[in-house]
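pasting for ref
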Amino acid sequence: MKTALVIGAGAREHAIARRLAGEGWAVTCAPGNAGIARSLPCRPVDATDGAAVVKLAREIGAALVVVGPEAPLVAGVADALCAAGVPAFGPSAAAARVEASKIFAKELMDEARIPTASWRAFDRPEEALAHARALHGRVVVKADGLAAGKGVTVSQELASAEEAIVAALVRHDLGEAGRRILLEELLPGRELSLMAVCDRTTYRLLPLAQDYKRAHDGDRGPNTGGMGAVSPPPETVPYAAEQLAELAIAPMLAALARRGSPFRGVLYAGLMLTSDGPRVLEYNCRLGDPETQLLVERVEGELGEAFLAAATAGLLGITLRERELWAVGVVSAAEGYPQRPRLGDPVSGLDEAEALPGAHLLYAGLAGDPRRPVTAGGRVLNAVGVGASLAEARERAYRASDLVSFRGRQLRRDIGGGGNR
């Protein structure tokens, strides 16, 4: 039996680990969390410490290390593993800049002629404020660096744009991540998540998904790391996934290679379908969260072998197919999320929810005794439902979600709602 080490502590990593275990891998999560520890072994590690991750990988005899979050990738953990001869699924720090710097990603998009929203970069607040006023506040304000899901403000009015600019460039609320910002054209349309497993030159597509980033129903409230997702998207997509990949994945792989930073891992393109065609909003250097929680249910083929092949010999001979089923994921978040999540509240109902057919739980912000966990983060857990129809998957996800209880639990009630299927 091959051994895999999954680096990270969230529901995305739980989903990856659960899928690999189902494929026959002996899986360890590091550091994991109290929820993941209910079913899988977890080991403490500083996920951004390359030497510590290498030591743990060698200790357990890992044939594959999957690095889940962006921060360890940007810190060079995949580089450290590769230098030590340990197969690592995830890009180098240089290639991870496609997520670590939104300005760098925009420059590459322009260089590769990838269609995107018009943009300008700023480090002086007065210049950024003048630009926002010229656009009547209808802009997207983005921190250049990693901001743990808190670096994007979608503004429809001048007051919110000005507040986001002042927060980043005057108060420095986002620290180094917000020392530079970009102001981007606000594009109307529908968002999609497109991801591909890449081996530097070639790729294999994962199923399309749609996530829900705003905190409240009807896409209201502040941006979050994601309050849920559905796959496939609930409304018909007028483009084949291969068409979207030719627009967004292939040219970015080529652009990174030209810069001397070939990309290995999962390249994520956030797309907006506009009346003028698809536009790329951003790139991530890893699997999306909460989309991954659904994609592992919808991919047919040996995902672990695909990850290992991408990390070593290449994807030639690897086939990943899309299963004909629906998957819906609903996030249960702590009171006060995303601004100031409340921590330390007991969580109940997990055993009952895990026993439901066609649904399961994936854990993120949990700590303490795995049998009696408490909340320890903004997004506490995901309830995932699968089914032959969108309605069936959605009903299963919400039934499992509603068996879980903790003080102030917040969730959206419109995940997967609407659509024409």
